[in-house]
Amino acid sequence: MKQEQAKLRIAELTEKINYYNYLYYQKDTSEISDFEFDQLLKELMTLEEQFPALSLEDSPSRRVGGTITKTFETVQHKYPMLSLSNTYSQEELRDHDKRVAKGLGDQSYEYICELKFDGVALSITYENGLLSRAVTRGDGVKGDDITNNARTIKTLPLKIKNTLDVDSVEVRGEVFMSREVFDKLNRERDDIGEARLANPRNTASGTLKMQDSSVVASRKLDCYLYAVLGENLPVKTHEEALKQLEAWHFNVSPTYKKCEHIDEVIDYIEYWETKRFELPLETDGIVVKVNSYAQQEILGSTAKSPRWAIAYKYKAENEATILNEISYQVGRTGAITPVANLEPVLLAGTTVKRASLHNANEIQRLDLRIGDTVFVEKGGEIIPKITGVDMSQRKANSQPIEFIHTCPECGTELIRKEGEANHYCPNERGCPPQIKGRVEHFIQRKAMDIDSLGERTIALLFEKDLLKTPADLYKLTYDDIHDLEGFKDLSTRNLLNGIEASKQISFDSVLFALGIRYVGKTVAEKLAQHFKSIDNLAAASFDELIDVPEIGERIAESVIEFFGDPENKILVEELKKSGLQFTMTEKEVVLESSLLNEKSFVISGVFNAFSRDEIKEKIKNNGGKVVSAISGKVNYLVAGENMGPSKLEKAQKLGVDIISEQEFLAMINNT
User: Which residue numbers delimit the BRCT domain (predicted)?
Assistant: First the structure.
């Protein structure tokens, strides 16, 4: 394809994909199938690789991430991001209304009410319609530039139609993580033995400050916009600003309402007090703003907050109940989680009987004792938690709770690893919940995908001593399964067929299914792609492991520990004999060109247009060869940012040509 043709096609694809993204993420509508969408995006990214200079600022490929930001520049806000005064009282809200009325004299006024979302405030600047900068609130005067990460938010337009005829406009919103995404993220962390994240708000905040924007993209953050600022904007009210944001295809929560007087405001507050629990994200109150911008100017601001707005905060629903006992659960990785068993209490519309206490540190921090009257609330409106103890009700003979020393399931002495809050049962192969948990992990959809097998069946097989490791699944016979409670001929054959079909599952999924600590689905894919087989991975050294992009020391140590265990070696060999896939199926390489024939390359550092795996594929697709070590036979070292100094020094010493990413692109584009 010639450059002029590519330019037109890139522009066409960019516009189409951005439009389909808008329909999907903000209108819940799909005009094309997922496959068709993926093909369009793949075509665009291929063209952008071939003609990088033609990539547009609003290209949807920028949402995929991949940029590494080592430090976040501190930026001064053009318009200070003031915090709001808070109140928990309707009486104080009416007092605020009286102050507004006094400040405006005889003028009539109206309010706009919006839900106060529990997220991270963000200021985004558009220059000539293009997203140019995104900055966190910080201290209200200065914040951090997280533009690369903000671009990954699918509902945030990379380009807006400049209908107001202004060079620069600033919009503000709240970045959040939905409950669904947060819960999924915690389930994934459970899978790989990571500590659970505390709440969606803190997770969203931490995600925005991650160095690798591709990881940010995978977290699926969202953003509700609520303000427009700029010089000489033809917008007279807050309501008009919200409608303008909607016209620009920003994601605006449809829950806002214009209220004629304070009684309507209070009706709105009362309506959402319980209704808000049905929303897909966290809320903690209502923001009440005078609608007219002219009247906002009259009312002005204090040094800390505007006089024309106030936040009404809902009180966290908190009830007192009795702590009857503490039980202890054992997870797949052996982690022990204490659970408070409570006298049932009604909280936020549901009956609460149990609350997680996380670990021994939390029990000690709360100074809990059996029989205590404790205060319970829904942390983040999702998970019940104990927030304190009513000391006035404490019994005189109560004793501090001592955390258990042995596993409640198998009696093994617990251990506590240095630097970790959790206690663990080290009896991996003899502790029933760990054995069953590993099999449950092994058969899940993202792993071996044996959907005809569930927790109940795993428990039945375990009780009959038919299932101790995942390898035992492939030894089951018709009679073994048919004899189980509830199984008949059809269900037996379905389970056997599901187990047989799992033998075709790809190596990366099998690797994830093994349950190596800290090796989640994405890490398993990267390791499988890099090492190509289980034997290569098992033989890899620490240095070879950390040389894989995004594989850190903790993962490398965990992989080495796993393959160093004789029992795990036996497991892998048994699964091999059963016919599972332990090598990557190499795709047939269709050469783009022969420009790099007989040329060998070493790749080092971080790149802008490619990940390291992508640049290696590009070399192979153009006839070249990728090697891992510098030698006199290497033709080129492709040097990215933060490359290893030893490779650079050796390449210089041996006279290897050192080229930049831009020089490599020129080489394959034959320019």
Answer: 591-671
pTM (2 d.p.): 0.63
Q: Which two structure tokens, joined as six digits, stand for 598?
A: 């007989």
Q: Which residue has the tokens 């199984």?
A: 487
Provide the pLDDT confidence category of residue 16 given band limits of 50, 70 and 90.
confident
Is the separation of the CB atoms in 658 and 637 below 8 Å?
Answer: yes
Has 31 been labeled as part of a binding site?
A: no
Mean pLDDT of 590-609: 83
pLDDT reported for residue 474? 97
**Which secondary structure element, helix H or strand E, spans residue 312, and what is its range?**
strand 309-313
CATH architecture of 432-504: Orthogonal Bundle (1.10)
Q: Which residues are part of the catalytic machinery? A: 116
| Tokens read off for 268 | 């709105």
Confidence of residue 587 (pLDDT cuts 50, 70, 90): low
Longest Cα separation, the chain = 87
137 labeled part of a ligand binding site: yes
164 in a known ligand binding site: no
Of the ranges 469-478, 522-531, 589-598, the best mean pLDDT one: 469-478
Kindly report the CATH number that applies to the domain delimited by 75-313.
3.30.470.30
- Report the 10 Å Cβ neighbour count for 256: 18
Specify burial of residue 141 (Cβ count, 10 A radius: 0-12, 13-18, 19+).
Answer: exposed
Strands 657-659 and 636-639: parallel
Ranges of each domain in the chain: 3-64, 75-313, 317-425, 432-504, 507-577, 600-668
The angle formed by the CA atoms of residues 262, 266 and 270, to the nearest 5 degrees, is 170
Domain over 507-577 is classified CATH 3.90.226.10: no
Give residue 575's pLDDT: 97
pLDDT band at residue 346 using 50, 70 and 90 as cut-offs: confident
